[in-house]
């Protein structure tokens, strides 16, 4: 009998989130819950749902809104039909582009930290009971090499870099607190997406294939650490 794995991914309306959903749902072993802020406008996601009805569930989620998260938990439990959640992929995020440590916009700074740090914190906490019922119990927080002090990138993207560094530390704390879970962060690389732009060197199809392969085989040895999409560990 084919094993069944359950996945929930945030930020699936486009880019890396949409690519992960596309790859996962093509395997009959996977049941996928794809979330985004506005499902009605996520046309590509709707097409996938129509094609893979029964194995792909699209649910509204605003990762910084506690009420939205609570509704999403209830709808996810209903969609999974009593199954636990094997994989939670905190992918949703925003970027303040090329701001610096002395030129940032205060509102942009706060909204970026809310989406990229508070969001994964709230979502992970809310879905903990569903994860505890799962077989794999994996949380992946999508980070960036910009959050690594070891990478001397320079002044730009200060807000984005700071929030990803904070997310890395959150991941470490989650792993310390819950050694029964597998919790780690990953860098997808600079990919050709709406956020990454056309100058990015990496194909999201290739990087997400590598990233999902890593996640699927991750063990407790990988927990609390920071990994590149191709399985290399990142110093941070």
From TrEMBL:
Gene Ontology MF annotations: oxidoreductase activity
Top-level taxon of origin: Eukaryota
InterPro entries the record matches: Fungal_SecMetab_SDRs, NAD(P)-bd_dom_sf, SDR_fam
Gene3D superfamilies, per the entry: NAD(P)-binding Rossmann-like Domain
GO cellular component: cytoplasm
Pfam families documented for this protein: adh_short
Protein family per UniProt: Belongs to the short-chain dehydrogenases/reductases (SDR) family.
Protein name from the UniProt record: C-factor
Lineage, uppermost ranks: Eukaryota, Fungi, Dikarya, Basidiomycota, Agaricomycotina
